[in-house]
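Prompt: May I have another protein with tokenized structure?
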Amino acid sequence: MTLQDKIQQLMEQHPDLFPTEASFWSYLRGCLRRGLWNKSPMKHRFKSSQMSPPPEDYKGRGKKGAYCELTGEWQMTSKMEVDHKDGHKSLLSEDDIVPYVIHLLASGNQELAVVDKEAHKIKSYAERKGISFEEAKVEKEIIQKMRLPKAEQDATLKAQGLPFGNDGNRREGWKRLLEQRGE
């Protein structure tokens, strides 16, 4: 039985779990990430090796941390994550399995970086959308603003003389406001 035959069999036997072939690949991707990356001893060793005492001007409670490779800001260990420098890898077919596993087994300075958790989310968003880090930062802020109650959004945007009234106008208003502020 080939892998493609097995995928078809799973889709037929478990249509609620695997309604499409893409759902199978998403499942497999998650299994591999949890098994190979989340608990990777190489990842944990790399993160530990990058930690150092805080800079002299640091006023927080953290006893160890690192400078984020994306923002240059020092953060304590609990606010840092290990990131692949060579971003997002797809797993959409049998041909992608070995390259994806190799990607998950990254272990050195050439392949990994210690980054702030929020900066990591922004970088991942930028890679998925094919935009710059700065553009992704603005988009993520707009997404947060769009989650506020609509009346609150409209009041803020109206006071600034910006578009409001429906989601499209609000999104445009927030974008202009954030660009004006340089956020």
User: Anything to note?
Assistant: The chain has a mean pLDDT of 92. The CA atoms of residues 155 and 164 lie 9 Å apart.
